[in-house]
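Lecture 7, part 2: worked example. A protein chain together with zinc ion.
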Amino acid sequence: MDLDTLCRRLPKAELHLHIEGTFEPELMFAIAARNGLRIPYGSVEEVRAAYEFDDLQSFLDIYYQGASVLLTEQDFHDLAWAYLQRAAADGVGHAEIFFDPQTHTDRGVAFETVLDGLWSALRRAEHELGMSSALILCFLRHLSPEAAMATLEQALPHRDRIVGVGLDSSERGRPPSLFREVFDRARAAGFRAVAHAGEEGPPAYVSEALDLLHVARVDHGVRAIEDEALMQRLVDDGVPLTVCPLSNVKLRVFDTLADHVLGRMLARGVRVTVNSDDPAYFGGYVAENFARTAEALHLGHAELATLAKNSFEASFLPPERIRQLCDEVDRFVAAHRES
Ligand code: HPA
Ligand code: ZN
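Predicted complex, written out as structure tokens:
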């Protein structure tokens, strides 16, 4: 079996995926047209050609612009359903999906419109694709902690449909400490906690996310490599990192995949996982991230199995289900031994 097929069939969970980042230009045009909105591009090719980024902010500017055509419950359903089908084809048995309610509520779209549309797609994936999934509400860190608190208030009545809270958007100059109170409140209400840290921000933001926000896993976290004491802590405490290799290269966190720290972190014993982040913008869904990273960093079947099992172990699934899924990975790898 070739590497791409192996990486597609390998059972895995996806834990770092922004649903607004799965908005493919074809669907963007279709939804803009039915909502009577215009986007500042003439064709799908023109949209794709605009996806040249210098850093996180240059990406976010285009990402928020794309999301601005989403208005109705059907729009959010169609967006999530398109992702879920692609994920299932990529061997994803379970997905924990980020959504950014403030991107929509600030434009006058109701919180419930967003949530109901996404939720119906998740239920459909369970029935039609046999795939489990969950939603994680991300607070936009370029906005105020008060705005995050107001968003949490909107989410409280829907606690049964949202597994956790996260923190995304522009990282530089927006340390996790700003959001301590809203994370305290969210955890007290039963939400699990995750946060983007150490993508563009310094290793100290990873430590803050752990110490102040008490996150169960860190999204990205790759700049932890710059701090040896922090690296040791991640190993000792088994802190999962949801790493997104193609995203990191596209946003110039690393020059090439061959320069990526994932291989070194894995060898060091950090619980790293592979994810696609915003695959419509970064040139590959999760199986592509696995295959291109394995190729560039010379990862073998043992490393691929570890990455896949890490993805289930780092998920918010019940322990019994995690064991079953990890056994599936072992059986899959045993049946496809390296020649
Ligand atoms: N980093 C921060 N915020 C984001 C990202 C990301 O990679 N994708 C979507 N929002
Ligand atoms: Zn992200």
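The pocket of hypoxanthine (ligand 1) is lined by residues 18, 21, 56, 63, 168-169, 196, 199, 247, 277-278 (CB under 6 Å). The chain has a mean pLDDT of 98. Keep this in mind for problem set question 3.
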